[in-house]
Design brief:
By secondary structure, the chain is an alpha/beta fold. The chain is built from 8 helices and 11 strands.
Length: 316
């Protein structure tokens, strides 16, 4: 059976190609971003859920998580600091134990910049102790796992489990990571937003710790807004919406012989002349590339597009 042709979808696709061509970066929908950069699998370790007579105290699960953190650190895994994790959980009013909802995992991952969460459970069966780890992609909701067992204390199982987790991350982390976001993908997520030539005032400040400022976030936002049929104005007084963006990238060291950069992007969206705040948020990305500048630009671009794909829904 032939698929129905949707004129609206075709018009939007044509508009996207024209916009991207105007910026000199037109791509087909199937093309990914250049292979010169890749996501760094930043990992957060949550307390394990202790069950049963031998692991009923919450501190057991926390102790196991702390030991796994140390073991992963020794295996060159990029980890979120415990203080940052606890701060994020407090901000989101969440409990680290039992964080099973994909939405809550995504929300936590975005706030702390983690692409992968590690959690698990401790239990006893037939006189044997088990420690089971779940390795969760925060944006893909895909899950990998591994386990260890023994007759000692649960904390005795942690080093062996950390080695197994590290092996899974080194071998299969790509299975847990999302594809890079393109303007096409962001526009598809915003399909219900119709610009109708309404005017947007855009103010962007960017800092990648280099002498020359970089317009990565500004370019991505302009491409996306134009693709959605908005007009960009330099006069804030006449704008229907105002978008303020702050983007910062810093050196995050090396990853697999590549330079890596960690970026944080904040967006605030205001409506009308009364400047009513209608959406706000922040996103983090860590990306590795052939050079720091490549990684920094891509990290900012990815954080900007992912955040905009959520917040610009307020422009309906």
């Amino acid at each position: 059976m032939m698929k129905k042709h949707h004129p609206g979808a075709s018009i939007r696709s044509i508009a996207l190609v024209i916009v991207l061509a105007a910026f000199g970066v037109a791509r087909t929908r199937a093309q990914a971003l250049p292979d010169s950069s890749r996501f760094v699998p930043v990992v957060a370790v949550l307390p394990f859920d202790g069950r049963g007579r031998q692991a009923e105290l919450e501190k057991t699960g926390k102790s196991v998580a702390d030991l796994i953190f140390v073991g992963l650190l020794e295996n060159d895994i990029n980890l979120v600091e415990r203080a940052d994790l606890d701060k994020a959980l407090d901000e989101l009013h969440m409990s680290a134990v039992g964080l099973v909802s994909p939405d809550s995992q995504l929300q936590l991952g975005r706030l702390i910049g983690a692409k992968i969460l590690i959690t698990g459970s401790l239990f006893e069966a037939a006189g044997k102790k088990y420690a089971v780890a779940k390795i969760i992609g925060t944006e893909t909701t895909r899950v990998l796992g591994c386990s260890v067992s023994g007759h000692g204390e649960y904390t005795d199982l942690a080093p062996g489990l950390a080695k197994k987790i590290a092996a899974v991350l080194h071998k299969d982390s790509e299975k847990l990571l999302p594809r890079k976001t393109t303007v096409f993908a962001a526009a598809d997520r915003l399909a219900e937003v119709k610009g109708r030539q309404r005017k947007v005032f855009l103010s962007v400040t960017e800092d990648i710790a280099m002498p020359t400022p970089d317009p990565a976030a500004e370019i991505e936002l302009k491409k996306l807004l134009l693709a959605l049929d908005f007009l960009i104005t330099d006069n804030r007084a006449e704008a229907d919406f105002t978008i303020l963006c702050e983007a910062v990238a810093t050196n995050a060291g090396s990853y697999h012989k590549f330079s890596s950069a960690a970026a944080r992007v904040e967006l605030s969206v205001y409506q009308g002349k009364d400047k009513q705040l209608i959406a706000a948020g922040a996103a983090k990305e860590t990306v590795a590339g052939a050079s720091y500048i490549v990684a920094a630009k891509d990290a900012i671009s990815q954080a900007t597009l992912r955040l905009a794909a959520d917040l610009l829904k307020a422009l309906k």
